[in-house]
Design a protein that fits this description.
The structure holds 2 protein chains of 2 kinds.
Chain A (H helix, E strand, L loop, with lengths): L1 H7 L3 H13 L15 H7 L15 H4 L14 H5 L9 E6 L5 E4 H4 L6 E8 L4 E11 H6 L9 E6 L7 H4 L10 E5 H4 L5 E6 L2 E2 L9 E3 L12 E7 L6 H5 L23 E4 L9 E3 L23
Parallel strand pairs in A: 1-10, 4-11
Antiparallel strand pairs in A: 1-2, 3-4, 4-7, 5-6, 5-10, 7-8, 7-9, 11-12
Chain B lengths: L2 H6 L3 H25 L9 H29 L9 H23 L4 H10 L1 H18 L3 H7 L1 H7 L1 H16 L5 H25 L6 H5 L2
The chains are: A alpha+beta, B mainly alpha.
């Protein structure tokens, strides 16, 4: 465990070297953004293009989206993340990109995002537990970041990894958690390259709260929420389908694809409907779940696949 | 000592009633808060929060009910057993309202949805099974039924151990990744059940003598 923590700690040499590597790769605009964490000021300087609202679907208020979370690194109750995630240090933050790439490297988060335009994306978020929200994310397409590291022709999948730091993540210290940290997720490369798949650094016009996966998280709106991995420290391009946390835990319940699909029930929750949060006692706000969470444009990614088998 | 007079000064019973009903009272207070401003008490997912709250209290009351007899033996206060019935009835009340909350708030009052859940989702199957098992125990909890059933009453009410186990399995199977609560109640159940098993085993070997006649289970 201790070994693992150390590997994520910042070492000035490697950061410096990787900075040079990125600069060497000809990334524009780095000089314009002095190296500091993703603060509110940072976001203010960067700015973002506003997103289009979803017709007839109201945004979930920030107070709910930032206080009702699944982030097992901080505990298994919905309010554990908002109570305990402040214990996680997000500055400094480095991300290691490795595997089937021509330019692997370990890079500070600000440099990683240098020169990438931010935009707002208002997406539905459908949890496998049959609740959902509408959240205005601030981010950029996954493809934009991954391409910088020049994946080789052999790259077929991309694997993501969340921070492991038990000293700051009490869920990782919990004796009763059955998760084998780090939390890992993955996508087929063509899924990751779909324009709807984004990395988010903010939401509701602010930088991401820790409980929502600061400073960098994945958002794949047509898949169940657990695919959208939080607080990413590792991105690895691979030839083979990478292991994913919930699938490792319960393969019968959680598939690799995990596309939102009302026709395939989960052994614990019916996926036919969802509670759009906030769901109050007097207005439960129960709505029908749509295939691909309403993002039917991703269907060609799965042409010819049996989605009951590849759930 | 005059038994009538003793009963009159027994403040323990109303005090116990108030204590056992307190979680209902807190819930009523939260309902009131929620009426004033939605989300204030139950957060983003009110149905889930209320169902969970009632379920947690149902299993706590169940454990409390199971703990009464061992506590009476441990503290050598056989009369404590008098309070077992009210504990059991509160366990039943929390379990029934837990189910009602699930039915109204999560299953959208759809009997078809409940039936589907009962068939397809094992944690709901065992939850409903546990609740159904509680019904005959609640019905026959009166002194009249106790007399009518004679020694069968005791046999029937051993069902409470199975119900405790069903409740723990229900909690375990609905937990996604954190098994702390299920483990806690499971361990408690094993201790409470173990105490009885050990006692019966000891009695069979003649070490404890005739406890059964004097103190009941």
């Amino acid at each position: 465990m201790a070994e693992r923590i150390r590997s994520y700690e910042i070492t000035p040499e490697s950061v410096w070297l990787s900075r040079r590597a990125v600069l060497g790769a000809g990334v524009a605009g780095l000089a314009a953004w002095p190296s500091h964490a993703l603060s509110q000021d940072w976001l203010g300087q960067r700015g973002f293009a506003p997103g289009a609202p979803i017709a007839d679907e109201a945004e979930t208020p920030f107070e709910y989206a930032s206080a009702y979370n699944n982030f097992y690194e901080f505990g298994s109750d919905k309010d554990d993340p908002s109570r305990h995630a402040h214990e996680m240090t997000v500055d400094p933050w480095t991300v290691e990109v490795s595997g089937e790439v021509a330019k692997p490297g370990k890079i500070g988060i600000e440099d990683l995002l240098g020169g990438i335009d931010l935009e707002e994306r208002i997406y539905r978020l459908r949890c496998v537990e049959a609740w959902s929200m509408v959240i205005p994310w601030i981010g950029f397409p996954v493809k934009k970041l991954i391409e910088r590291f020049e994946p080789t022709g052999a790259a077929q999948y991309v694997a993501f990894e969340t921070l492991v730091r038990p000293s700051e993540m009490r869920g990782q210290r919990s004796f009763f958690s059955s998760i084998d940290w780090p939390y890992v997720e993955g996508l087929r490369l063509d899924e990751a390259y779909h324009p709807l798949a984004i990395f988010a650094v903010g939401m509701y016009g602010k930088v991401l709260p820790n409980q929502n996966g600061a400073p960098l998280r994945l958002v794949v709106p047509w898949k169940y929420g657990f695919k959208s991995i939080k607080s990413i420290v590792g991105i690895r391009l691979t030839r083979r389908q990478p292991p994913t946390t919930w699938n490792l835990l319960q393969a019968r319940e959680y598939g690799f694809y995990a596309n939102v699909n009302p026709a395939v029930d989960h052994p614990r929750w019916s996926q036919k409907t969802e509670r759009r949060l906030p769901s109050s006692l007097f207005a439960p706000n129960r709505i029908d779940t749509k295939p691909f969470n309403g993002y039917e444009e991703v269907a060609p990614l799965y042409a010819g696949m049996n989605l009951r088998k590849h759930f | 000592m005059n038994p009538v007079r003793t009963r009159r000064v027994d403040w323990a019973r109303p005090a116990l009633f108030v204590a056992l009903a307190t979680p209902f009272g807190l819930l009523a207070h939260d309902f009131w808060l929620e009426l004033q401003s939605p989300g204030a008490a139950f957060g983003a997912d009110a149905g889930e929060a209320v169902t969970r709250y009632l379920g947690e209290w149902a299993i706590r009351m169940l454990m409390l009910t199971l703990a009464v007899s061992p506590a009476a033996r441990l503290f050598k206060r056989p009369r404590l057993v008098r309070y077992r019935r009210v504990c059991g009835l509160f366990a039943f009340a929390y379990a029934v309202t837990h189910f009602a909350a699930y039915l109204a708030l999560l299953a959208g009052l759809s009997l078809r949805g409940v039936l589907e859940d009962f068939i397809e989702r094992p944690y709901i199957t065992v939850g409903i099974a546990g609740l159904l098992c509680l019904v005959p125990l609640a019905v026959t909890s009166t002194r009249g039924w106790q007399r009518r059933l004679g020694s069968n009453w005791r046999r029937l009410h051993r069902l409470i151990y199975a119900i405790g186990a069903l409740a723990c399995v229900h909690l375990l199977w609905l937990s996604k990744g954190g098994y702390g609560e299920a483990a806690l109640y499971g361990a408690l159940l094993i201790v409470l059940l173990g105490e009885r098993v050990a006692r019966v085993a000891l009695r069979r070997r003649g070490a404890v003598g005739n406890v059964r006649g004097r103190r009941g289970a």
